[in-house]
Amino acid sequence: MPTQTVTTDFSDYIKKTAVTVDQALHQFLPSEKTAPATIHKAMRYSVFAGGKRLRPVLALAAAEACGGDPAKAMPAACAVEILHTYSLVHDDLPCMDDDDLRRGRPTCHKVFGDGMAVLCGDALLTESFLILARTLPTARYKMESFIHELALTSGSRHLIGGQVMDLEGEGQALTKAQLVKIHKAKTAALLTTSLRLGAMSVNATPARLEALTTFGNCLGLAFQIIDDILDVTQSTEVLGKTAGKDAKVDKATYPAVVGLDASRKEAATLTKKALAALEPLGTKAHRLRELASFLLVREY
Ligand code: GRG
Fold it and tell me: Could you list the residue range(s) of the whole structural domain that residue 68 is in?
């Protein structure tokens, strides 16, 4: 975390929230000893590999921004992190992005084998819904709304659809509009759903949910543009994943399509739009504001 741009208070908040999330994840996930042990070891290996926990933080901060108790959003926060981890495990497989390093450690299939990694991803995806089902329904949102939200985002219309467009786009000269479509589906959709599920867990009003959706769409696209930039400007050691991978496999990225400077400017403009969307939420959204500002200057 670049200390010059982050207050101690925000840095402490992120660290403390990540610890609380990890404690909940430990409770929710089956123990390593649960039979069959190998799959549960693989699941825990992948989940506790040191991710930034951005999606859970978004869910918990969204609950707070809506004036609710963040603790109520913990099942949703853990569900999105587990689902995100599944997507990373499958994305790293030899038949997808074929990567050896993730979160600073050998990827799941490198340690447990391809077959076990496929099953680990499948199990994490299923487990995320099991954990989400622990959410207590509210006056406005019944359990089916929570399930619908996560299923729609993780399915073929968004997350998987984005991966399909990504795979089919390799080696092709994509337009900016096509790239934006991929980034929205692969990245922005799950970040937005993290916010929405956190807010729904505390019975957010439709107006607040709408404001968070706009915030998430802008923030999610900015986050992926920064990710594309970091892929060309940072080292493998700092990122904890193979740097320069996108260019190597001839993948369309923001810097490749519009250049580095224009990419930085676009990320800044989107972050401004994201911050403007938070206005109706008032001071309770201060953690989301800090987070958006931090993500723009992040170094990994
Ligand atoms: C279902 C196989 C499959 C793929 C769906 C989400 C996705 C598409 C693939 C995962 C890899 C990828 C490049 C996703 C884009 C979003 C992104 C930048 C993920 C990395 O998120 P961070 O930086 O990761 O929050 P940590 O490790 O910190 O949690």
Answer: 8-294
Distance 87 CA to ligand 1 centre (A): 6
Residues with CB under 6 A from ligand 1: 51-52, 54, 84, 87-88, 90-91, 96, 103, 159-160, 162-163, 186-187, 224, 227
Helix (H) or strand (E) holding 22: helix 8-28
Cα 171 to averaged position of ligand 1 atoms, centre (Å): 20
What would the pLDDT profile of 54-107 be if each residue is shown by its tens digit? 999 999 999 999 999 999 999 999 999 999 999 999 999 999 999 999 988 999
What is the Å distance from ligand 1's center to 194 Cα? 14
Specify the CATH number for the domain of residue 283: 1.10.600.10
The angle subtended at Cα 258 by Cα 266 and Cα 269, nearest 5°, is: 5
Q: Give the tens place of pLDDT for each residue, 188-239.
A: 999 999 999 999 999 999 999 999 999 999 999 999 999 999 998 988 888 8
Task: Identify whether 222 is part of a domain.
Answer: yes
83, 166, 224, 226, 259 from 182: Cα distances, Å: 18, 7, 10, 15, 18
Domain count, the chain: 1
pTM score above 0.85: yes
